């Protein structure tokens, strides 16, 4: 039975965040799971991708091992009732389905924010983790490098990756632009709800920034700050921290403005202070812009920029899908040719063995010059004899008809026989 490339996927499309959090795998868990899959199932091509929006396992095997793999995930996560989560997984048991899905995920077509810039790096890290454990064979190596090349084409030939298409990323892009001439800009993030957490995670794109997080619930802010390597302060020190910050991002829920003009105008602002209000309803008074040195952007300003970018990305999807289809076709052409490679090698070896035996038989008394001449002639003859069956085999691959040709050549040249070992 031939190995098939398969996948299991749990994503935001079929599982709420409460389930995704339970199944999510950190680097240590991914490493342990890769080792188990290698040891238990003797796999050679495995890729595990786990982000905030998805946990997916890609693998090559002759059998559908989706249930066994989900049980291994449960074992790794300490879940006694992992079978309860099976309904949230989507199973891809055909080569073409699993490969198409991996392409779409890697390029960003399946991302919550279409064209997500982070997914390409996450996929590269997943591939590196597999390669480090020798769990990337010729098939996966070729597939991943085809995906990386496709990603380059998408960036170069379409508008699919242009600009920021999420409010949180657009906010970070704005901060990066305004603070570009500031050494280690001090950024204060107030509130770590869904959007505040996204902004915090996207701050990795401004590596020089000194980020401080605060939240009404200190434990939640500390957990996020520890994860990202940021500073955390109690909410009671929020106003004091705002005075020192170059950038203040507010995403707290409050019925009345939390940051007022009266508060801000009492501060000494030597150059500029950027306020980004991502709260709905707004948590910063619009009149603070009247204070010298203050810049204010609210969620509507940023969302309109993100929406315009998203529309461009959506318009580019047909072109992206065309590029993906071309790459998948090229990959499958390679995969088909790989199918006949063992037969071609066996045929070459069989003919070479005949050539060497006949050379040995008839050239016992020949001098060195005669041996060299006949060796050259017989090698040339062998190449010409091989040319036609090799071309026909490759053509049969493209017609999906290689099996018959392989059987015919195997019978004609007895390619399945065990090679006879000569005594030393």
UniProtKB/TrEMBL annotation:
Active-site feature positions: 52
InterPro entries, per database record: 4pyrrol_synth_GluRdtase (IPR000343), 4pyrrol_synth_GluRdtase_dimer (IPR015896), 4pyrrol_synth_GluRdtase_N (IPR015895), GluRdtase_dimer_dom_sf (IPR036453), GluRdtase_N_sf (IPR036343), NAD(P)-bd_dom_sf (IPR036291), Shikm_DH/Glu-tRNA_Rdtase (IPR006151)
Entry's EC annotation: 1.2.1.70
Top-rank lineage group of the source organism: Bacteria
Keywords, ordered alphabetically: NADP, Oxidoreductase, Porphyrin biosynthesis
Domain annotation Glutamyl-tRNA reductase N-terminal: ranges: 8-158
Catalytic reactions of this protein: (S)-4-amino-5-oxopentanoate + tRNA(Glu) + NADP(+) = L-glutamyl-tRNA(Glu) + NADPH + H(+)
Residues that coordinate or bind substrate: 51-54, 116-118, 122
Site (Important for activity) residue list: 101
Alphabetical list of CDD domains matching this protein: NAD_bind_Glutamyl_tRNA_reduct (cd05213)
Keyword Transmembrane helix: no
Gene Ontology MF annotations: glutamyl-tRNA reductase activity
Quinate/shikimate 5-dehydrogenase/glutamyl-tRNA reductase domain mapped to chain residues: 174-303
Every Tetrapyrrole biosynthesis glutamyl-tRNA reductase dimerisation domain range: 320-415
Pathway as given in its UniProt record: Porphyrin-containing compound metabolism; protoporphyrin-IX biosynthesis; 5-aminolevulinate from L-glutamyl-tRNA(Glu): step 1/2
Entry binding sites for NADP(+): 191-196
Top EC class, one word: oxidoreductase
Domain-related comment: Possesses an unusual extended V-shaped dimeric structure with each monomer consisting of three distinct domains arranged along a curved 'spinal' alpha-helix. The N-terminal catalytic domain specifically recognizes the glutamate moiety of the substrate. The second domain is the NADPH-binding domain, and the third C-terminal domain is responsible for dimerization.
Note: During catalysis, the active site Cys acts as a nucleophile attacking the alpha-carbonyl group of tRNA-bound glutamate with the formation of a thioester intermediate between enzyme and glutamate, and the concomitant release of tRNA(Glu). The thioester intermediate is finally reduced by direct hydride transfer from NADPH, to form the product GSA.
Function description: Catalyzes the NADPH-dependent reduction of glutamyl-tRNA(Glu) to glutamate 1-semialdehyde (GSA).
Subunit: Homodimer.
Family from the record: Belongs to the glutamyl-tRNA reductase family.
Protein name, UniProt field: Glutamyl-tRNA reductase
């Amino acid at each position: 039975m031939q190995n098939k490339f398969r996948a299991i996927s749990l994503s935001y499309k079929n599982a709420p965040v409460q389930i995704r959090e339970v199944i999510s795998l950190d680097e240590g868990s991914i490493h342990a799971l890769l080792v188990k899959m290698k040891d238990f199932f003797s796999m050679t091509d495995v890729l595990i991708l786990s982000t905030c929006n998805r946990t997916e396992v890609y693998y090559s095997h002759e059998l559908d091992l989706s249930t066994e793999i989900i049980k291994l995930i449960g074992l790794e996560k300490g879940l006694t009732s992992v079978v309860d989560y099976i309904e949230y997984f989507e199973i891809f048991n055909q080569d073409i389905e699993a490969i198409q899905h991996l392409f779409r995920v890697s390029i960003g077509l399946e991302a919550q924010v279409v064209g997500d810039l982070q997914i390409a790096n996450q996929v590269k890290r997943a591939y590196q983790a597999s390669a480090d454990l020798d769990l990337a064979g010729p098939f996966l190596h070729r597939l991943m490098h085809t995906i990386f090349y496709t990603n380059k084409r998408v960036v170069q030939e379409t508008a699919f990756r242009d600009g920021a298409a999420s409010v949180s990323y657009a906010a970070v892009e704005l901060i990066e632009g305004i603070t570009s001439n500031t050494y280690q800009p001090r950024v204060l993030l107030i509130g770590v709800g869904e959007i505040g957490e996204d902004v915090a995670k996207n701050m990795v794109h401004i590596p020089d920034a000194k980020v401080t997080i605060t939240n009404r619930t200190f434990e939640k802010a500390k957990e996020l700050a520890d994860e990202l390597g940021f500073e955390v302060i109690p909410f009671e020190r929020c106003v004091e921290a705002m005075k020192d910050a170059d950038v203040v991002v507010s995403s707290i829920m409050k019925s009345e403005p939390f940051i007022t003009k009266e508060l801000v105008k009492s501060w000494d602002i030597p150059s500029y202070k950027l306020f980004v209000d991502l709260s709905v309803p707004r948590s910063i008074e619009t009149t603070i812009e009247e204070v010298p040195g203050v810049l204010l952007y609210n969620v509507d300003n940023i969302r309109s920029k993100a929406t315009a970018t998203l529309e461009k990305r959506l318009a580019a999807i047909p072109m992206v899908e065309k590029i993906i289809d071309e790459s998948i076709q090229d990959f499958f052409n390679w995969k088909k040719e790989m199918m006949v490679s063992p037969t071609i090698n066996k045929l070459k070896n069989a003919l070479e063995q005949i050539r060497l035996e006949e050379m040995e038989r008839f050239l016992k008394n020949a001098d060195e010059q005669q041996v060299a001449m006949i060796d050259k002639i017989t090698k040339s003859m062998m190449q010409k004899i091989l040319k036609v069956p090799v071309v026909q085999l490759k053509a049969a691959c493209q017609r999906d008809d290689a099996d018959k040709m392989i059987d015919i050549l195997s019978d004609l040249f007895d390619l399945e026989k065990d090679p006879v070992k000569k005594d030393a």
